[in-house]
Design goal:
single chain; 515 residues; Rossmann fold; 15% strand; globular
């Protein structure tokens, strides 16, 4: 018996530590590391370092290398300040940051497994492709290849400026982070077969700003044909530009000029000569964000989807029940100042919006503020994405609401979050064990189910599979969708009456009625 156990241990140790055979990708040979039936490739370049004269330019081809390049350590994250999620360890940063990480089942290159490409969130200002929560090991063990991609954020990724527009062959500037994502997707199409992935079965996915990126890529003609499915979690870009005029190129250029002035730079040449750390000190008037431009995004996502010009692919999207809890100090919300507090943050809003969210008592005001900001910032976008794709596309739509409260400890930075922004990520990636929380069997069942739904969708464009509650297709404005909580089952979309009020106001701002 002891001999048998020793032999089993020795064989498993051999699998974990066995050397991975080099594979050929653009630029040369890379060597990953085997890990219990998986091969991980970390820090694989998909473009040239965007430094020096390449700062604020479209990503350029990979610089070739000689010999075998080790792909066993994560590259630094792109230049940024702060972190993308409260409680996250700050990543190492560098301007040389355009790399992908890959987790692949240890199959031959002829396996042709479906591929999930993950785009991180962080408000377009921060985020990391190597954040442990996004590691693809658990999903890859369910039979897919997982890729996490880096892209430039903040001023490095989203600076528009008249000089940059003038020097561009496409007469545009500002969407460098999106161009990084598109370059990474092209790299996946051209190279993923080398590690057993199927370049014809690529699904792009993201959360928060990563989900907004996914919706933009689905609307961009430049990204067409680079993916066959989309997953969006709590992020979209369907509001009218009338409430965000900085997203229009000419306005973004003026903000870029103000950014340069804040650093004492009189030209783009002067900006490019500044150390990367100095650039982080510049002031972007409305923050980092994508731009409606003639090259990457010639139409708003709303207009692209409303007129059927989006990439018509299977779609899995949704939001969390109380997204705003991650951003609000609920104890500071009171009925007496409810309207004034909202106006201070969002400006003067139409009175019909207030009417949808009762705030007679402090308890009402607190719950209504959570629901108001959840609907305004997240749920309306995801619902609109679902209904537009369902109305103008032929591919299936699957909508979810995550309403489970993870056991965040009372002494943690995530205390009181509940089913808030970020909360679904531990379940999607099946990474409960990364945190020492008091996870229950219900948590583990939910993580296993959600990771299986996501993997099934990557495989087939449909999340349903053996042993899982049936996820119905989204058909009308009311759904149905799938509730993901202590119990999993189909249900109508919540608060659609409130969401329709947002739509009516937004349609008035656009000056036209859309689906």
């Amino acid at each position: 018996m002891r001999v048998a156990l020793w032999l089993l241990f020795t064989l498993s140790l051999t699998v974990v530590t066995a050397r991975a055979e080099p594979v050929a990708v653009e630029g040369g040979l890379i060597e990953g590391a085997n890990d219990g039936g998986l091969t991980a490739y970390k820090g694989v370049p998909f473009a040239a370092p965007p430094v020096g004269d390449l700062r604020w330019r479209e990503p350029q081809p990979v610089v070739p290398w000689s010999g075998v390049r080790p792909a066993k350590q994560f590259a630094p994250a792109c230049m940024q300040r702060g972190v993308s999620m409260p409680g996250e360890a700050p990543p190492a940063i560098s301007e040389d940051c355009l790399y992908v990480n890959i987790w692949a089942p240890a199959h031959s290159s002829a396996a042709r497994l479906p591929v999930l490409v993950w785009i991180y969130g962080g408000g377009f200002s921060n985020g990391s492709a190597s954040m442990p929560l996004y590691w693809g090991d658990k999903l890859a063990r369910k039979g897919i290849v997982v890729v996490t991609v880096a892209y430039r954020v903040g001023a490095f990724g989203f600076l528009a400026h008249p000089e940059l527009t003038h020097e561009s062959p496409h007469a545009t500037s500002g969407n460098y982070g999106l161009l990084d994502q598109i370059a990474a997707l092209r790299w996946v199409k051209n190279n993923i077969a080398a590690v057993g992935g199927d370049p014809t079965r690529v699904t792009i996915a993201g959360q928060s700003a990563g989900s907004t990126s996914v919706c933009i890529l689905a609307a961009s003609p430049l990204a067409r044909g680079l993916f066959e499915g989309v997953i969006g979690e709590s992020g979209g870009f369907f509001e009218p530009v009338q409430i965000a005029p900085g997203y229009i190129l000419a306005n973004a250029e003026r903000e870029g000029a103000a950014f340069a002035q804040s650093l004492g730079a009189s030209s783009i040449a002067a900006l490019r000569s500044l150390p990367a750390a100095k650039v982080l000190e510049g002031k972007m008037p409305s923050g980092a964000h994508p731009v409606i431009d003639p090259y990457v995004l010639p139409a708003t996502p709303y207009d692209a989807f409303a007129t059927g010009r989006q990439s018509d692919v299977p779609t899995l999207i949704g939001a969390n029940a109380e997204e705003a809890r991650a951003f609000l100090d609920v104890s500071s919300i009171h009925a007496a100042t409810y309207g004034a507090d909202i106006e201070k943050m969002f400006g003067k809003l139409p009175p019909q919006l207030y009417e949808q969210y009762p705030h007679t008592t402090d308890a009402d005001a607190r719950q209504s503020r959570i629901e108001f900001e959840t609907d305004l910032r997240f749920r309306w976008n995801m619902w609109t994405w679902a209904r537009l794709q369902s109305a103008t596309g032929k591919s299936k739509v699957f909508f979810y609401s995550f309403d489970h409260a993870p056991p965040f400890p009372s002494n943690s930075v995530r205390a009181g979050w509940g089913a808030s922004h970020f909360a679904e990520l531990w379940y999607v990636f099946d990474h409960l064990d990364q945190e020492p929380y008091r996870w229950t069997q219900a948590d583990r069942r939910l993580a296993d189910a959600m990771s299986s739904y996501w993997v099934n969708f990557v495989r087939t464009g449909n999340p349903n599979g053996n042993g899982l509650a049936q996820w119905p297709e989204f058909k009308t404005e009311d759904g149905p969708g799938l509730e993901l909580g202590d119990q999993i089952g189909s249900a109508a979309v919540a608060r659609t009456g409130n969401l329709r009020v947002f739509s009516a106001i937004y349609d008035q701002l656009r000056g036209a009625s859309h689906p």
